[in-house]
């Protein structure tokens, strides 16, 4: 078809030129020939403005204003603020949520369950009509089907449905709150953005009332590092707001609104005041020369002082240091990795330190390198566990252990403990026998290390 069209317009062009060129100079003929060629070629290629299908395609890319385009940046900020305000007004307020609860209770359907009130689909739709337009998105067949379980009458739990609505409203409110700190408006928060969010959140958390303002900056740093350590594995310096909402960290942080939070819950919550003070206190205790930084020797006393010298050497080779010393932020990453060795992000951190040649895998040579200080003799018996590690991990390649192999094996915490920690090694070796007291184990390990 294309060849036929080409022949058609080329023939027309030749005939037009033959008739029009009589009595004209050579230059005039060439000029007219070029004009006609351009015209017909453009029509053949669809270059005319007629029937341009791409005009019907909606615009999907908008260039971000440059730093020097102050007016455009201001316009973008104002339009985002208006958009977020509109989205906020679409959410249920306290009075509307309370009214919805009364409607649901009023429309519960018998037979009455001794444990919880139930509602049928017909009554569910009736409540949806009475609740107002803001609730329309909650009263759909899809939502009802999600909450329908094993009730013999085809009803759903009123409490479960109400909790579902509360969770959705909370998520949207939190997303809008986080988006206010998204300066670029791209759905990401940089470290400084999240720091500002948490700093302004502190006064709303009763469990943090006892914190001195001089400690706020250290608390914010401690809190923010957990988000970035686990949600930014590639260390891009920004994390998706969607990822923040999807993980449990924000729930843990906002749990501090509970004035009656138990002591056990506070101790297990990274964001609580006791937890933050514990981590920062450990850092100060390790800093013997009080210069605000940790040397390799100072870090060697971390925990039970059983980390091997080889591992500590790798930490200071790979991690960010300042004149060979570690700052508090780098220390937080170190602590998060060692306290969460079952998590993929922590395994990734430790694996990078174990992978000395940056090969992407560990082999027998790598393991032997970390075992060279663990030729620990007990009753003249030398323990070697290379084969046992490969048996535990069961890597795809029988001679190489990758990070993914460690994660898939669910034995990553045990393997890494064996390789980097004397205490972890002894615990594994004596898992079926009574373990000697910690001080004896530590002293033996340190003597062999030297």
Strand order of the largest sheet: 1-2
Q: CATH superfamily membership of the largest domain, which one? A: EF-hand
Give the overall shape, derived from the CA principal axes.
extended
Structural class: mainly alpha
Radius of gyration based on Cα positions: 34 Å
CATH topology of the largest domain: Recoverin, domain 1
Compute the number of strand runs.
6
How many helices? 23
* N-to-C SSE string, H for helix and E for strand: HHHHEHHEHEHHEHHHHHHHHHEEHHHHH
Helix content range: 55-70%
Q: Give the overall average pLDDT.
A: 86
Total count of domains: 4
How far apart the termini lie comes to 84 Å
Q: Briefly, what CATH class of the largest domain?
A: Mainly Alpha
Strand coverage percent: under 5%
CATH architecture of the largest domain: Orthogonal Bundle
Q: Low-confidence parts lasting 5 or more residues at pLDDT below 50?
A: 376-383, 434-439, 444-450
Main sheet specs: 2 strands, antiparallel
Keywords: Calcium, Cytoplasm, Metal-binding, Nucleus, Repeat
InterPro entries: EF-hand-dom_pair, EF_Hand_1_Ca_BS, EF_hand_dom, PPP2R3C
Domain EF-hand: 342-377
Subcellular location: Cytoplasm; Nucleus
Question: How are the secondary structure elements laid out?
Answer:
Blueprint: H1 2-20, H2 26-44, H3 70-89, H4 94-106, E1 118-119, H5 121-131, H6 141-147, E2 156-157, H7 158-179, E3 188-190, H8 191-201, H9 216-231, E4 238-240, H10 241-246, H11 249-254, H12 263-268, H13 273-286, H14 296-299, H15 309-318, H16 328-339, H17 344-354, H18 364-371, E5 377-378, E6 381-382, H19 386-393, H20 403-409, H21 412-420, H22 422-429, H23 438-449
Antiparallel strand pairs: 1-2, 3-4, 5-6
Helix pairs in contact: 1-2, 4-5, 8-9, 9-13, 9-16, 16-17, 21-22
């Amino acid at each position: 078809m294309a060849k036929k069209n080409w022949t058609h317009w080329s023939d027309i062009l030749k005939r037009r030129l033959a008739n029009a060129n009589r009595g004209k100079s050579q230059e005039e003929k060439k000029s007219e020939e070029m004009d006609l060629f351009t015209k017909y070629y453009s029509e053949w290629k669809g270059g005319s403005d007629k029937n341009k299908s791409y005009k019907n395609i909606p615009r999907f890319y908008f260039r971000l204003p440059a730093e020097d385009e102050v007016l455009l940046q201001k316009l973008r900020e104002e339009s985002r603020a208006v958009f977020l305000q509109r989205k906020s007004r679409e959410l249920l307020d306290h009075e509307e949520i309370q009214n919805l609860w009364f409607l649901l209770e009023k429309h519960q359907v018998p037979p009455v369950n001794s444990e919880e009130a139930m509602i049928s689909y017909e009554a569910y739709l009736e409540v949806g009509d009475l609740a107002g337009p803001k609730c329309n998105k909650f009263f759909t067949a899809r939502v009802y089907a999600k909450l329908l379980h094993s009730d013999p009458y085809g009803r759903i739990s009123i409490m479960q449905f109400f909790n579902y609505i509360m969770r959705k409203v909370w998520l949207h409110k939190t997303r809008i709150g986080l988006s206010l700190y998204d300066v670029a408006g791209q759905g990401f928060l940089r470290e400084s953005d999240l720091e500002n969010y948490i700093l302004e959140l502190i006064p709303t958390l009763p469990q943090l009332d006892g914190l001195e303002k001089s400690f706020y900056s250290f608390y914010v740093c401690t809190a923010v590092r957990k988000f970035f350590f686990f949600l930014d594995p590639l260390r891009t310096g920004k994390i998706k707001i969607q990822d923040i909402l999807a993980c449990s960290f924000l729930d843990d942080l906002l749990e501090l609104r509970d004035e009656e939070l138990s002591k056990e819950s506070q101790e297990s919550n990274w964001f609580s005041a006791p937890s933050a003070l514990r981590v920062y206190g450990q850092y100060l205790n390790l800093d013997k020369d009080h210069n605000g930084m940790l040397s390799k020797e100072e870090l060697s006393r971390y925990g039970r002082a059983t980390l091997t010298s080889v591992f500590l050497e790798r930490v200071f080779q790979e991690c960010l240091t300042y004149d060979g010393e570690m700052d508090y932020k780098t220390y937080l990453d170190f602590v998060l990795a060692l306290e969460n060795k079952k998590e993929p992000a922590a395994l990734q951190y430790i694996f990078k330190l174990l992978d000395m040649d940056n090969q992407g895998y560990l082999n027998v040579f790598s393991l032997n390198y970390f075992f060279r200080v663990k030729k620990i003799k007990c009753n003249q018996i030398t323990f070697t566990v290379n084969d046992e590690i490969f048996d535990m991990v069961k890597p795809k390649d029988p001679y190489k252990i990758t990070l993914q192999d460690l994660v898939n094996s669910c034995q990553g915490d045990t393997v890494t403990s064996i390789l980097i920690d004397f205490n972890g090694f002894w615990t594994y070796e004596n898992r079926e026998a009574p373990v000697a007291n910690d001080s004896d184990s530590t002293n033996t390990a340190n003597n062999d290390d030297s």
